[in-house]
Amino acid sequence: MSAGARRFFAEYAWLGGHRAAELVLIATDAGVISEVSTGVDCPPDAVRLPGLVLPGLANAHSHAFHRALRGHSHRGGGSFWTWREDMYAVAGALDPERYYALARATYAEMALAGITCVGEFHYLHHDRDGARYGEANVMGEVLIAAAHDAGIRITLLDTCYLAGGFGRPLEGAQRRFGDGDVEGWAARAAGLTGAAHARVGAAIHSVRAVPADQLAAVATWARERGVPLHFHLSEQTAENDACLAAHGRTPTALLEDHGALGPRSCAVHATHLSPEDIGTLGGTRTTVCLCPSTERDLADGIGPARALASAGAPLALGSDSHAIIDGFEETRALELGERLARHSRGHFSAAELLSAATVAGHTCLGWPEAGQIAPGAPADLIAVGLDSVRLAGARPDTLLESVIFAAGAPDVAEVIVGGRTVVADGRHQLLPDVAGALAEAIAALEA
Questions:
Q1: How many CA atoms lie within 13 A of 230 on its CB side?
Q2: Residue 389 contacts by C-beta under 8 Å, 6 or more apart in sequence?
Q3: Is 320 a catalytic residue?
């Protein structure tokens, strides 16, 4: 994934803070940033990057196979729970070859949108009847291969999924997700290995999918390895109600009881929280990954982003079910959701929002060195063109605000990952026809 020594020149680049720096030279070696200079002329050997240069974006929560559902589950209304049945149907159609094709194209779509690292919340482990494949981790391995071939980094969050609800067995397509018990999950997950572009973490699907007496074992597995631990949390009020009925505790309190919260942990969604839950997540420095486009699409609700951040919980962003893949849309939605809920503006600065999409996202995926343009960081850069109708009239003193609140995925002109060009002039260099690859992969599931 990395390249040799290269130099990149940006007329504007975000190096932290509330304004873009001007005339920035970024030197890289072996895929790592070695030097950053500002206020300099462009050397003849440097690659000019257009517009505003940012660190690559982190998509901290993805289910790659959900991409096949985009636009196919809206007719007739319904709820999260009816949408879930459509999702199970897609899960039932996948095999390793089809999953690789769909994931590679989905990750390439992410690259086109400026996403250079993805957290793949992976629970589709086994064959259609629930039996293990001959290679027990083949489905995880094809995701790691798909990210490599799409040119992005990945943290594979191998997910423990043991129950179909509180006190209910796995049924139908859910049988593909389970390992029998937490010991079976841990033994299989231990066989996964990372790569230069890939790291491995753990996940608890949700408190409804992992019995309470097995939560601590997953948390211990992650803690002993020093890897991220992610979990879906309070996406639906029905989940909260069922947890209270089963355990007399909210999902947040139950996870705290079993040692699952902390600085290496990430709660996904966290939409319906009590004030006590917010204080617990903030006090333990648990990251919260909001997925606004999915939370809108599934009518989940608006999460308490500002309250969580004020309590001490770092915020990250994900595209989850990929109703759209646009990191800028996810990022500005933190502020716009607060405006809708509170009827006022100015809850997050553009710099805070950009930090959520870069620094915090990478950190919760186990890449704490990434998400910044600084010596020692991976040379993961994106250039956002300023010449579209969306960004016409942008001014140097408010470039961050213009990009965060008006840019879209089509404005990403160049993407560099590990010092190597993955997207040039808005075209993916490893998979030239991403739209065609997506269409073919989705059609294969319907055959």
A1: 31
A2: none
A3: yes
Say whether 269 is catalytic: yes
Helix axes 182-189, 212-225, angle to 10 degrees: 20
- Extract the tokens encoding 302: 């608006």
Residue 116, classed as helix, strand or coil, is strand
Per-residue pLDDT of 287-328, as tens digits, reads 999 999 999 999 999 999 999 999 999 999 999 999 999 999
Pairing mode of beta strands 427-428, 420-424: antiparallel
Catalytic residue among 269, 272, 347, 362: 269
The number of beta carbons lying within 10 Å of the beta carbon of residue 41 is 9
Asked whether residue 364 is domain-assigned, the answer is no
pLDDT confidence band for 2 (50 / 70 / 90): low
- Please classify residue 371 by burial: count the beta carbons closer than 10 Å to its beta carbon, then call 0-12 exposed, 13-18 middle and 19+ buried: buried
Report if residue 394 sits inside a domain: yes
Can you give the length of the chain in residues? 447
Residue 218 lies in a domain: no
Domain containing 398 — which CATH number? 2.30.40.10
Quick check: 316 and 361 in contact, CB under 8 A? Answer: yes
Task: Kindly indicate the confidence band of residue 81, based on its pLDDT and cuts at 50, 70 and 90.
Answer: confident
What whole-number distance in Å separates Cα of residue 265 and Cα of residue 263? Answer: 6
d(CA 163, CA 56): 36
Active-site residue (options: 158, 300, 320, 380): 320
**Which structure tokens are listed for 182?**
């937490």
- Counted domains in the chain: 1
| Residue 406 domain boundaries | 6-54+371-428
Strand partners, 200: 156
**DSSP-derived 3-state class of residue 151:** coil
In a domain, 33, yes or no: yes
CA gap 421, 414 in Å, rounded: 7
The beta-strand segments (E) located in 44-189 are 47-55, 57-62, 115-122, 153-160
- Exposed e or buried b for every residue in 274-312, given b needs 16+ CB within 10 A? eeebbbbbbebebbbbbbbbbbebbebbbbbbbbbbebe
Residue linked to tokens 């990009």 = 403
